[in-house]
Specification:
This protein is 34% helix and 19% strand. The protein is built from 7 helices and 4 strands. The chain has helices spanning 9-18, 32-40, 51-61, 99-110, 120-137, 162-170, 207-215; strands at residues 146-155, 177-188, 191-201, 221-231. Mean pLDDT is 84; it is low at 86-97 and 107-115.
């Protein structure tokens, strides 16, 4: 169905939800999808109510002078982007069960039901068997999926202390995050951005959350971009 209007709380909430796991409306870089969505907003989203939409909006302001050169189809309306169908449902009791819920029911049926009063020992044994079954089904013994990511960290100007910026960034610790090599890359007018490599465990680290943590260093960091991402 795409985005709804960006005037109502529901419409902006949909945008905020969409950007929870994304840096851009489409793909890994700014495009005409971002331009159309940005222009559809009458004002910057409230950071307390829509933190992800607010962060994206602030980031896109740094590209305003480049809007006309960004890739994509500028004739498309912002409503052509976003979720394909509404996440709203009917009364929960009337909503159809998803595949995962049905699997959970099947798992419970494999090892008995809790509807009748049971012997505590029988319950313990059943729960152990159920936990073992689920562990095998979920592939817990398989190696954790990882991604190799390259981030661009942009300073405010040529007077920004890049050593302090990098030190502050590398002080961020998250389970599943491993910092790699970094280098300074000239972007023009004497300004250099920090380009850094890192490896993340996909289930443990959200790239959006990491970018938000880096951008909390407002004295040094103007914005961050995902320059590249590859599954390992």
């Amino acid at each position: 169905m795409g985005f709804a209007d960006f005037v109502s709380d529901a419409g902006i909430s949909m945008l905020n939800s969409w950007l929870t796991t994304r840096s851009y409306i489409v793909g890994y870089g700014p495009s005409q999808a971002d331009v159309a969505s940005f222009k559809a907003l009458k004002e910057q989203p409230d950071s307390s109510k829509y933190p992800y939409a607010n962060r994206w909006y602030k980031h896109m302001t740094t590209y305003e002078s480049e809007f006309s050169t960004l890739p994509g189809d500028p004739s498309k309306a912002y409503t052509t982007y976003g979720p394909e169908k509404s996440e709203a449902t009917l009364n929960p009791k009337d909503a159809p069960k998803d595949a995962e819920a049905e699997e959970e029911e099947e798992d419970d049926n494999l090892f008995g039901s809790d509807d009748e009063e049971e012997d505590p020992e029988a319950v313990r044994i059943r729960e152990e068997r159920l936990a073992s079954y689920r562990k095998k089904k979920d592939g817990k013994d398989k190696p954790a999926a990882k991604s190799f990511v390259t981030l661009d960290v942009k300073p405010w100007d040529d007077e920004t202390d890049m050593k302090e910026l990098e030190a502050n960034m590398r002080s961020i610790e998250m389970d599943g995050l491993t910092w790699g090599a970094g280098k300074l890359v000239a972007v023009g007018f004497g300004i250099k951005k920090l380009q850094v490599n890192l490896v993340v465990v996909d289930e443990l680290v959200s790239i959006d959350d990491l970018q938000a943590k880096i951008e909390e260093d407002e004295d040094h960091v103007q914005s961050t971009d995902v320059a590249g991402m590859q599954k390992l």
